[in-house]
Amino acid sequence: MNSKLQVSASPHTRGMVTTRNIMFLVFAALMPACLMGVLAFGTHALLVLIVSVLSAVGSEYVYERLMHKRVTVSDGSAAVTGLLIGMNMPPQIDLWIPCLGSVFAIVIIKQLYGGLGQNFMNPALGARCFLLISFAGKMTTFTPGNGVLKLVTQVPSTTDALSGATPLAYLKTGTLFDLKALFVGTTLGCIGEVSAIAILAGGIFLLAMRVIRIRIPGSYLGTFAVLTLLTALVRGFDQPVIFTLQELCAGGIMLGAWFMATDYVTSPITAMGQVVFGCALGFLTWVFRMIGSGSEGVSYSIIFMNLLVPIIERYTRPVAAGMARESRENRRLVKENRKEARRLKAEDKKEKDA
Q1: Are the CB atoms for 57 and 73 separated by under 8 Å?
Q2: What's the CA gap between 247 and 226, in Å, rounded?
Q3: Phi, psi (deg, nearest 5) at residue 240
Q4: Angle at 279 between CA 275 and CA 280, to 5 degrees
Q5: d(Cα 240, Cα 237) in Å, to the nearest integer?
Q6: Fold classified for 19-150+165-315
Q7: Which of 192, 228, 252, 314 has the fewest CB atoms nearer than 10 Å to its CB?
Q8: H-helix or E-strand containing 247?
Q9: pTM of the predicted protein model
């Protein structure tokens, strides 16, 4: 008998939507942002991306072989995780740091909790936060590199290394940056987050291929944009609309909204839950950026909301047809039963006192 045959209830459908195909599409959608990062920062940025991917794939293969599990590197999930980690790295960082981050993401966050589909947070973001806490200096130092694109730094050209002098650092003080540079990707920052148009192109590609839906990125970016615009108006900034657009294009919010917040495993599956999830992400990112002491907050916002996904799904679960009326009737009966129980308890107490 063929062991590949499975008996299951109808209806039976066949399609090309597999984990491997989805991961291939996500990997392809990330290529424009990676290309812009390499053009902006040079060959070392390319090495960071390659090392991150190879470390993630290699650590998953070694762990699964050591634990005598089925090797799943062919599904592409480890490669996507490694690529996202590399895209979240400064362009000239030491190669052992993204390697360590990839191993941490795959082994600690993903495999120790059961593998793909069982992790409680986004592995790439968990690794980024781990590296930020452990190596804060290296993770916040940005050097231009030898890229072919001319970078807009808004600092003296004699500066060799910049610590935190990314566009978000200027926007934190209310100083406007070059919007065109933010949109195209000729600014300092992490490898995969500098080009808003490249990330947007990848996100639209995923929408067109129906890999993701607009609910999470739309509600995330929309909520953040509205709150940021109101903040700019209240604080009396000269160009509040331009400031809002620059906040949307700077930092990791575009990459987080399109490629990390939409992770199938760590985001809600209900339509209303996805909207609530995205709105909460926008609010938290706004709090971190506009009220908090730091200039970024995307990673911590997404990880925090990852932990709340089970609660969101519980309270946004749609009611089956015909069940809403029954649920109201059940609540009424429970209320009446509790009232009757309190009455009987009071009568028993009176009899005992008498």
Answers
A1: yes
A2: 11
A3: -65, -35
A4: 115
A5: 6
A6: Ammonium transporter fold (1.10.3430)
A7: 314
A8: helix 240-249
A9: 0.83
Q: Tell me if 187 sits within 8 A of 167, measured CB to CB.
A: yes
Give the Cα separation of 145 and 44 in Å (integer).
8
Amino acid at 5: L
CA distance 296 to 312: 25
Spacing of C-alpha 229 from chain mean position:
23
List, for residues 113-166, the tens digit of each pLDDT value. Answer: 988 888 999 999 999 999 999 998 899 888 776 777 766 555 433 333 444 456
Query: Hey, what long-range contacts does 130-136 have (CB within 8 A, 24 or more apart)?
Result: 130/101, 130/104, 131/97, 131/100, 131/101, 131/104, 132/299, 135/97
Spatial distance between the Cα atoms of 93 and 90, rounded to a whole number of angstroms: 6
Paired tokens of 156: 């003296």
Within 10 A of 343 (CB to CB), how many other CB atoms are there?
10
On the CB side of 289, how many CA atoms lie within 13 Å of its CA? 34
DSSP assignment of 272-304 equals HHHHHHHHHHHHHHHIIIIISSSS--HHHHHHH
